[in-house]
Amino acid sequence: MQPHLSHQFADALPALALPWQAEPPVRPTLLALNTTLADELGLDADWLATPDGVALLTGAQLPTDAAPVAQAYSGHQFGGFSPRLGDGRALLLGELTTPGGPRDLHLKGSGRTPFARGGDGRAVVGPMLREFLVSEAMAALRIPTTRSLAVVGTGHLVQREQPMPGAVLARVAASHLRVGSFQFARATGDLDLLRALADHAIARHYPQLAAADQPHLALYRQVIAAQAELIADWMAVGFVHGVMNTDNMTVSGETIDYGPCAFVEGYQSDAVFSSIDETGRYAYANQPVIAQWNLARFAEAILPLLDADESTAITRATDALNEFGPAYRAAWLDRMRAKLGISADAPAEQVAELAESLHALLEESRADWTLSFRSLAAAARGDAEPLRARMLDLPGVDAWLERWRSAAPSAELIEATNPLYVPRNHLADAALRAAEAGDLAPFHRLLAAVRAPFAEQDGVDDLAEPGTAEFAAGFRTFCGT
Asked: One of 87, 104, 247, 257 is an active-site residue; which one?
């Protein structure tokens, strides 16, 4: 049964919504369907797998009252401001009414729009399945994220480095409101539009703020808090987003746009995987700094809403932005406390010293991030060899273990917090290459593992192992545009 799609965003903010239609696929083939997510959304997964359902998932056949739009937004891309970005190869089909509230149904790779900026508007199988895989892994890791509902092959051959099979991703999100949305509204000079966008964001995500004395300042503070928590989540699992432009920072605090993303294996604080990040701007360790930089750009965009007097508005924004550092530090310490298996009443100074000194030992040894933390469970039970085997400085790690054991770590907490399975780069790369050649079995095998990341599974030992040093040395990720 075809779901109803409302058009709340398009109705509330027509200046940010360009009516548009998806490019029809030539030979649609359902490659991946998220039946669990469909159930959570109140959708009929069996119907979605039918030709009519696939037509919905590609935008080729929509409810008669649907109003698909390409969203307008700006963005700082690698530090340079682009005033007119927008959905160049994407469409917001509308909002689904779900038990958890409205959720955007959005397409990626649905064809050129007037925002395409010379691109072909299409996507290819590998990057779309990558987003499906990694977003499902992030959800299983309990990290706020957009979700992938389906990937459909289009039958198009899409020219990249070579002709590649085309695909469309159907993505679900709390919304697609971004820092770049506010930058676009501010750039128009229309303060009524800016105010309407801020009020829409409050109503959609933080309705309790509507009654605040200064609701728009409260919105800014809420987004700061949400992003501090999100970045701490990323850092805890070794996730590198790869393209933290302001148009990829959501107001909701969800991770969005899994283009050149990757997970750190042999730990390097300056790890960069994206082929287009030539300066390391979005390296692993830079992510908290970049998040705060993006939030400063958000403040600039909404400054007129914070006070009519610019000097007062700047002071309020600066005071709020200064909350990010302590909020992030507190969130990071919470994650580290749990990863180390230490009780909540342990002093913050002790947690910080243990975490930071372990990071230094891991980096010196280029030890695997995921397995090193996971091996702490064995160490808490008395067997430190799995951890020691990864380290170069054995006296250093032995001294660290002595200090750590004094905090009475819990093996059960460590295993409940540290995943065994993540979408390792060599595994994801191999699975996506196989999928592009028509073999989806490796993709589905890896997907099943990362959907249950904390419990040891039978028959998938290889999915917990890092790639070779040779693979890591040459590994790069790509946006797929």
From this structure: 247
